[in-house]
Prior knowledge:
Bound molecules: nicotinamide-adenine-dinucleotide
Oligomer: single chain
Distance between the termini: 74 Å
Mean pLDDT: 96
Largest sheet: 7 strands, mixed
Helix content: 25-40%
Radius of gyration: 25 Å
CATH class of the largest domain: Alpha Beta
Number of helices: 16
Shape: globular
Strand order of the largest sheet: 16-17-18-15-14-20-21
CATH architecture of the largest domain: 3-Layer(aba) Sandwich
Number of strands: 24
Amino acid sequence: MSTNQHTHNGLIEHWISGATTPGSSSRRAPVWNPATGERQAEVVLGTAADVDLAVRTAAKAFETWQEVSVTRRSKILFAFRELVNQHVDDLARIVTSEHGKVFSDARGEVLRGLEVVEFACGIPQLLKGEFSEQVSSGVDAYSFRQPLGVVAGITPFNFPAMVPMWMHPIAIACGNTFVLKPSERDPSAALLVAELWQRAGLPDGVFNVVHGDKEAVDALLDHPEIAAVSFVGSTPIARYVHDRASATGKRVQALGGAKNHAVVLPDADLEFAADHITAAAYGSAGQRCMAISAVVAVGAAGDALVEKLRTRAETVRVGPGEDDTAEMGPVVTREARDRIASYVDTGVSEGAAVVVDGRGLRLEGHEDGFFVGPSLLDQVTPAMKVYQDEIFGPVLVVLRAETLEDAIELVNANPYGNGVAIFTSGGEAARTFQRKVSVGMIGVNVPIPVPMAFYSFGGWKDSLFGDRHIHGPEGVGFYTRAKAVTSRWPHVEHAGDAAFHFPTAR
Ligand code: NAD
């Protein structure tokens, strides 16, 4: 049974100009309940015509929304903040039902998204420009930022509430209008969010949702009236989105996949490290872009750490997301479950030691659910596929390094650069690590260093294409463009000071 109020006879529809619509396509995708394996609804897969309608609607809404005062926009953001806050549990229930993650984790994602809304409430402060008086005799200089127009957000399945909230609150607060293309695997959270925007007083057409797959994405990337694209998803699609949207002159930020390392030094508190690495590796069944998926055990830390990780992995409580005692839910689809299990097979054939084997887990009463248990592989090397690929499931691999420098070299040789953590009791080692490591987000004894909403989120290398990180100050920069004005109100005594040389201050 779907928890979504917006399905019509089991069909999840687009949201354009403040109302649901089935659009023009007869193509549909199933939406599963990962805990039971049942198909709970279908989602419409939008066409280029549906995208065009949404974009034209947003373009029309931009004409008036960009004129709305920044204080009025801020009031709507505050009203939206209140409504999201009142509906945290409703959003979380939808996320659990379609994604599978446990309810407490789904609540956590909504609350982290809410923090971006709270950041965006301060938009009058964030949009303040600069002013320099008397840069030349009788001349002042100032700058301010303006919205871009219609911007698109294309988002992944793993954070169906939070990741879109990295984008639309800031884009809209800056005066843009927005078309969201959420993941077709868990599309319903976007519709409750659309309703909350409407109830907050946002004019219809400012926030729109088009469901779909590649066809809808390509239509957004090519649409001449889209000014900018924010994308979050896997690296191959991020690269594709970046290249295709850039080719049509759009501003693009495309965040990709990850292989996040936890480097554990021998001086670390190994109990503390094992607790936190276990939670970061298996929370949300490893389906987080900031999940720890590789441990680099330095020197003597190795065997003792693996033993502690083993005992913890063996006792992770796996269950359906609505079970309050469960720590880890199912993965998103049957295909994901089979792909993840096959990576453990690959690890075996590559010579890794399987310390904990999550393949073949069957939960009583949930035999058809998409469950796979936690796996721990030791003696992994950088040459193995289980290390090179983003598995995006509850599989943690352990590599060994002799020294901190070797560990940094190993991390830096990896093509991804999203998140990384170091566990140590030494400040100097931590400082060296944070200076030398080629990764965008670093945790010091913090396993999942997702920046707060008032900082910006983004990886390096193959984890981000484009030059702006998402949300926080860089989000405001991404969704606006600057004007610099040089201004003079001439008096009669300035008559005749025009010169043919390049203007210099007087
Ligand atoms: P995905 O790349 O398959 O899908 C992301 C979006 O792209 C979806 O909306 C999907 O409909 C669309 N899409 C998929 N295939 C497409 C194609 N061929 N052409 C055009 N559009 C296409 O990613 P996913 O499986 O939904 O999410 C998991 C991935 O996202 C992981 O790689 C994870 O690391 C990454 N992720 C990264 C971050 C980050 O901040 N860097 C955050 C969350 C997730």
